[in-house]
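If you are new to this repository, start here. Below is one unmodified record pulled from the training split, so you can see the exact layout before writing a loader.
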Amino acid sequence: MGRKEEMVKKVHKLMYKPDQIRNIGIAAHIDHGKTTLSDNLIYGAGLMSGELAGKELAMDTLDQEQERGITILSANISMVYEYDDDNYLVNLIDTPGHVDFGGEVTRALRAVDGCIIVVGAVEGIMPQTETVVRQALDEKVKPVLFINKVDRLINELQISPEELQERLMGRIKEVNRLIKEYAPNKKLAKEWQVKVEDGSVAFGSALYNWGISLPYMKKTGIGFKDIYDYLTEENQKELAKKSPLYPIVLNMVVRHLPNPKQAQKYRIPEIWRGNPESEKGKAMMGCDEKSEAIMLVTNLGKDPHVGEVATARVYSGTVKAGQKVRLINTKADATIQQVAIYMGSGRKQLKDIPAGNIAALTGLGDAFSGETVAETEMEPFEKIKHYAEPVVTKSIEAKDPKRLPELIKALREVSKEDPTITVDINEETGEHLIAGMGELHLEVVERMIQEDKKVKVTTSKPIVVYRETIKKPSLEVKTKTPNRHNEFVMQAVPLEEEVAEAIHKEDIEQGKPKNSKELEQKLRELGMDKDEARKVWTVKEDNILINASRGVQYLNEVKELLVQSFEEAVNSGPLADEKISKVKLLIKDASLHEDAVHRGPAQVIPTIKKGIKATILTADPVMLEPKKKIFIDVPREYMGKVTSDIGSRRGEVLDMKQEGKLSKIQVKLPVEQTFGFSSDIRSLTQGKAIWSQEYSGYEVLPKSLQQEIIQEIRQRKGLKKEIPNPTELIS
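And here is the target side for that same chain:
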């Protein structure tokens, strides 16, 4: 029997011992060593040669990942580790660090209970580090800390032993500051602080396979002074033999990260809005394998032999092949075909998987990431939050027009597998738009369509996604239906910034209010007028429709039509047909025909949609452009060239400081100006600059560029050159 087969037998046995299970993720900024650390842990479980650990990058299974040297998709593996004479099942998910693939991290964190945060010893806390810590804590996923690449502090920066300890303690303080800031409550902010003393912090080099923690120092007698000597003598191989990395990190995982029985008690009320005291609630919080099977799909992938494979966290019951289940959000029935665990690039089938584990399932054809799956109807799980939105778009077409149906199918599959990709399909013209987090995100998706889906495509240059908003309250605009029997009075008002921010954070749900009183309370706390807060009809993107009228007859009978019109209208503003943002639309008054025949969809919907555009045109409308924060580390002698390039791109320098021989520059750039930035900065600094980026939201486009950008977009979309006049839309 091979190592993997033997491991699968052990894994299945341990699945029924939840006290001995750890569901964990590894998360960090790009290039801080997550996948290299994963290699070490896989080696520690006996599934990889020690010679390959740190170099194999076993969890990077895509050709693109190996070629680009980055993780693109989350990868899962189940393995067994022996600790204190007991075996433990570790279900591990390695996640990407590049900001364009942050959605993979978000979805992985819903599946796990604990997380190893990896921080580079030299770079420290970087933008994506902060993001993943916030994401983990939002999901009530407990962190531990591994400070990687400690060898670089000594070999490259040549710091003293005293400076080494000072620098490492500084990294721990930075992480604890983030935990304190983002923890869901004060109790966890205190309890989840990472500490050297208790072993919830480890140090080492994943590339050279050695590590250290205080408990292990006491066991081996190897301290920081010894490590310093080994590194200055360039003897890391010997150090790896005496103080190997994998037991230090896996011991930390077993000792400090919760098992599913512990975690589900406090995580279920956080991610599920149902009654915790109900039968289903108690079963999930108790991780009860004998109750009804309830699970959440956290990711989707494609297997050429069996079709769609869903990654699912099982919260209660036991999942078996042939089991009939209900897809709660999709409102569809399904039959589970195969039940398996992940083993890196492959899967191993099992007869069943009980509560507290992560499963690979086939047969859930209509499922999507975030789908609730159960044997009977229930309240669904909370939606998985994504922390950024698509800001770069490409037009994509099939090279062979006959392959158009296959391209449409491939695009639908891609957007289902990765919810951070949005697809706009025009089946009549054959032109389709695909939007993602950045250039790299779209490049990767394009290649997946060509190589995995086998459809050759041509794409346009990247197009920036803009938004339209208003700067002041509009006039009250009257608009009549074509039959002249119905009249509506509307006003558009800028949405309160605090409310818009709450929508972006998903503290306020999209769609019609499920609990009007709860929403009213929340909106009033955020500064909205109490009468308006009480009469919200729907939330679409970061726009809100409010019934501000009084005593209008038959208004409730056309409410659904008004909601539908509003939700469609905010997808295309009057300036350039871009989405509308941060607008509060008030229905101030209406006069409606008593006969429902005269106030049907054909009369109401086009009237309201045109009326909304007319209303916005009287409110000083402007274009918003997306921006990114760029963090650049560059040798001091190149700083002038870098800042000059940033200035030429309409960049705003937010911060600049010196750290040793490096200049650390933080800037904000329009997304439109980031195209080509990578190659230019590499050329300007002879490849010596290191940079990273994060999404920074939308800001008003400079006045001098408003008309130019509007005309460019209108021309690209085939719209009339002239922006419509409000009276044209309501006459």
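Two things worth knowing about this chain: Confidence is low (pLDDT under 50) at residues 52-71. The CA atoms of residues 320 and 352 lie 5 Å apart.
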